[in-house]
Design brief:
alpha/beta, 434 Repressor (Amino-terminal Domain), Rossmann fold, 6-stranded mixed sheet, DNA-binding transcription factor activity, transcription cis-regulatory region binding, DNA-binding
């Protein structure tokens, strides 16, 4: 077979055209057809040196294994499902990318569906998963209609959830430690001298949004700062929600000196509203987000935020599904994987407005 272009690996030349199939691979690698089949299906009992030889022949010949035949041999589809809430929030495309990278590394394809927080779409997502006979499903929606998942659970398909999930075999839950990162954020603001701190929450129907609000309220009390109900507003986890909530704060008689947001999109909405009002961050208001999406590094100013690693979530989800699918985990109880959060300090937080002016007043003057 001719090279496809300069710089590509030179392909093995054959004396005459021949059908490219598993038999050809076996002959050229000097192994049995069964060994090639086991290698393609990544069965761990194959000698690593032999498996390496088989894969080298496959690469040289640009052979693409028949996925349908592979499924018949292994009894598996080699597809992992991933259900997310939406794809307009940059958090989820970044999560999908990490999930796919890790899945492909282990020989799996992925099937992605987005619910847009709509139960009807969720039902459609599940139907797609069943039709494609996925080996396992990661439900990364941060809130789900439990009855809809019975269709998957009844078929004993391995499932991964975020935060909460039903008890039973083949169930894994990624437990996000919201409290740690949010506590760091509140302590960071308190150390800067902030006592007037608002919180823009997400929809409380989402378990993750309620957990973040609880973590904020608890952390505020730990710092001796009673949360003010009128400064806890819903930001909807959207850019528009953050803008609207910030407009409410700006219209109030008493303005906070800092705002903590339940996610980065809300925080970016706050930054935009401050810009439109002719105010500056952090001079007039300190802002903290949550998620640490990639764009948070390049907002003006760069956003201080709580990091929840999409890569850690993706890796834990794929590993949990593989453990069930590949039979390395057989416990009848659900399994939990901890996901850490940490504060990332950038330039959107500073001293409360007027602090430097007060310090200059108190400093001794030269005679």
């Amino acid at each position: 077979m001719a090279d496809l272009g300069q710089g590509t690996k030179k392909k093995r030349k054959t004396a005459s055209p021949e059908r490219m199939d598993i038999r050809t691979i076996a002959r050229l690698a000097n192994v049995s057809i069964a060994t090639v089949s086991r290698t393609i299906n990544r069965i761990p009992t194959v000698n690593p040196k032999i498996a390496k030889r088989v894969w080298e022949v496959i690469e040289e010949l640009d052979y693409f294994p028949n996925t349908q035949a592979r499924a018949l041999v292994s009894g598996r589809s080699w597809i992992l499902g991933l259900i997310v809430s939406e794809i307009t929030n940059p958090f989820f495309p970044e999560l999908i990318q990490g999930f796919e990278d890790i899945a492909v590394e282990h020989g799996y394809e992925i099937l992605v569906s987005s619910t847009n927080h709509d139960p009807k779409r969720m039902s459609h997502c599940i139907r797609r998963m069943l039709e494609r006979k996925v080996d396992g499903v990661a439900v990364m929606t941060f809130g789900i209609e439990a009855p809809l998942l019975e269709q998957l659970a009844q078929r004993k398909i391995p499932l991964v959830f975020v935060d909460v999930g039903p008890d039973g075999p083949n169930i894994s839950v990624l437990k996000v430690d919201y409290r740690h990162g949010i506590r760091q954020g509140v302590q960071h603001l308190a150390a800067l001298g902030h006592r007037k701190i608002a919180f823009l929450r997400g929809p409380l129907a989402l378990h993750s949004a309620q957990s973040r609000l609880d973590a904020f309220s608890e952390s505020m009390r730990e710092c001796g700062i009673p949360p003010k109900p009128e400064w806890i507003l819903q930001g909807e986890h959207t850019l528009e929600g953050g803008m609207a909530a910030m407009q409410q704060l700006l219209a109030g008689k008493d303005m906070p000196t800092a705002v903590m947001c339940s996610n980065d999109m809300t925080a970016i909405g706050v930054l935009h509203s401050m810009y439109r009002a002719g105010l500056r961050v952090p001079d007039d208001l300190s802002v903290i987000g949550f998620d640490n999406i990639h764009i948070a590094e390049v907002t003006i100013p760069p956003l201080t935020t709580v990091q929840m690693s999409r890569f850690d979530l993706a890796r834990a989800a794929v590993n949990a599904l593989r453990a069930c699918v590949e039979g390395t985990e057989t416990s009848p109880q659900k399994h939990e994987y901890n996901i850490q959060t940490d504060l990332v300090v950038r330039e959107s937080t500073g001293f409360p407005r007027g602090t430097m002016k007060e310090l200059r007043k108190k400093s001794p003057t030269k005679k």
